[in-house]
Design brief:
Number of strands: 14
Radius of gyration: 17 Å
Strand content: 15-25%
Helix content: 10-25%
Order of helices and strands: HEEEEEHEHHEHEEEEEEE
Length: 278
């Protein structure tokens, strides 16, 4: 039944003329990271005034055009993929990241560091990974998604709070969420249902760093926004496995320092199409 529901949502998205991937083939790189092609298109970013759960920084809602197609990680970057590129776990390195003290809770290190779990790192560490991955693959096409590209992806043509609708009671089908620090942790990527564009864990599991500095929205329509030129913090999106996250809606956003490494913040890689790398 759940698979039929997601098929119906995808069909509705296509019928409405909103963007979904015009391509059907995924891309897999040399370390097994899988990427889903996402077509260019337009969407309303942020929350409407009628959304009672919305925070002030999710408004005003504004029209955004994503002018170029891209490929986005089907899954969040895993611990195993991190180690394949970087050579060791980030928690074994003295990288200057400020770690969340909850990492030292009994059993947390083992739960967080399972190979198929999303890796939990700082924004700065994610940039180091991307640099190494680009070097390994011989190009400069990998980066974090912008905040606009990220929100475009979980929405997948929808205008509801979640890619599956507005009913938070259905969240458990699509998201790892609602756990405590005593026994909880991130879970293996892809364990939940994908969204209509085939992306897993856009809601829950771990927050995901995006490229942008944190800042307020403008009401004007815009194309390919990149956020403020400077700022004290970076943006995370998507909510996490923990009960206090409360940010699983597509529009929710949160600010963290670039050097902060929590136990519930990871990232997803965007791969630019050929000829688009900067």
């Amino acid at each position: 039944m759940f698979a039929r529901l997601h098929s119906a949502l995808l069909a509705a998205t296509l019928a409405a003329g909103t963007a979904a991937s015009a391509q059907t083939a995924e891309h897999t790189n040399s370390i097994g990271m899988r990427f889903v092609p996402i077509a260019a298109g337009s969407f309303t970013m942020g929350s409407q005034g009628s959304d009672r759960e919305a925070d002030a920084d999710e408004r005003p809602a504004h029209r955004v055009t994503i002018g170029k197609p891209f490929l986005l990680g089907k899954f969040e970057v895993t611990q195993a993929q991190w180690e394949a590129v970087m050579g060791s776990s980030p928690h074994e390195q003295s990288s200057g990241a400020r770690s969340n003290p909850y990492f030292d809770l009994p059993g947390m290190a083992e739960r967080v560091r399972k190979p198929d779990n999303p890796v939990t790192v700082s924004w700065n560490e994610a940039q180091q990974f991307l640099q190494r991955l680009n070097e390994k693959e011989g190009h400069r096409r990998y980066r974090l998604p912008t905040e606009a590209e990220w929100e475009y992806a979980p929405r997948a043509g929808t205008t509801t709070a979640y890619s599956f609708g507005d009913d938070r009671g259905q969240l458990g089908r699509d998201a790892g969420f609602g756990e405590d620090f005593a026994t909880g942790s991130p879970h293996a990527v892809g364990a939940k249902l994908p969204n209509p564009w085939g992306l897993h864990d856009m809601h829950g599991n771990v927050w995901e760093w995006v490229q942008d500095n944190y800042g307020r929205y403008d009401a004007a329509a815009t194309t390919d926004p990149k956020g403020p030129a400077s700022g004290a913090g970076k943006v995370v999106r998507g909510g996490s496995w923990h009960a206090t996250a409360g940010g699983w809606r597509s529009a929710h956003r949160k600010e963290y320092p670039a050097d902060y490494r929590g136990i519930s913040i990871g990232f997803r890689v965007l791969m630019e199409t050929q000829g688009e790398s900067k």
